[in-house]
Amino acid sequence: CALAKTFIGLIATGNHVVRITANCELKWDGNTVVNVRGDLAIIHNGSVTFDSNSRFQNVGDPHNLYFFLGLGGTSTCKFEMLSNSQIGSDLLTLIHTPCEVHMNSNAFLVRGQIFSGLVNFDSNGSIYGASVSVPGVPSGTFSEDIVYFREVVT
């Protein structure tokens, strides 16, 4: 995770996909600012943590930010934003994980969507919903397969 974190912090321009196959924690320490200068997708088998007061902020034109976690079938695919962390304006964000998304107190996601097995918001944690197009999927379309069907007989 350290190499991926360093790469993300050094991106000067352009759109990037960062694939992390290790089951590790990708963590930004407190008061860290990550400048996003293009569309960025982070595809990770492990977890992501924004420590207190850390943030991703947009530089230049509006960009998209994607977090796809748990694709390797691991159980440690949590996305967590600790107190006062944020993903800033002009970063349309999609968070997708079969695990948990936890927004601690005052954690702040300006615009985006969350698809998760469990979503927890502590006091004053917030997100403003906005449609986020997924790369490779035509705008306005969505396909879904039923994985589990439960019938309740009363």
Overview of this protein structure:
By secondary structure, the chain is mainly β. 6% of the residues lie in helices and 47% in strands. The chain has one helix at residues 2-10; strands at residues 16-20, 25-28, 33-36, 40-44, 47-50, 55-58, 63-69, 79-81, 86-103, 108-121, 126-129. Strands 1, 2, 3, 4, 5, 6, 7, 8, 9, 10 and 11 form an eleven-stranded parallel beta sheet that branches.
So what's the overall shape? globular
Cα radius of gyration in angstroms: 16 Å
Count every beta strand, where a strand is a DSSP E run of 2 or more residues.
11
Structural class: mainly beta
Biggest sheet layout? 11 strands, parallel
H/E series: HEEEEEEEEEEE
CA(first)-CA(last) distance? 50 Å
Mean pLDDT: 85
User: What is the share of helical residues?
Assistant: under 10%
Count of DSSP-assigned helices: 1
Estimated share of beta-strand residues: over 45%
Poorly predicted ranges (pLDDT <50, ≥5 residues)? none
How do the strands and helices of this protein lay out in sequence?
Blueprint: H1 2-10, E1 16-20, E2 25-28, E3 33-36, E4 40-44, E5 47-50, E6 55-58, E7 63-69, E8 79-81, E9 86-103, E10 108-121, E11 126-129
Parallel strand pairs: 1-4, 2-5, 3-6, 4-7, 5-8, 6-9, 7-9, 8-9, 9-10, 10-11
What does this entry show, briefly?
The chain is mainly beta and 154 residues long.
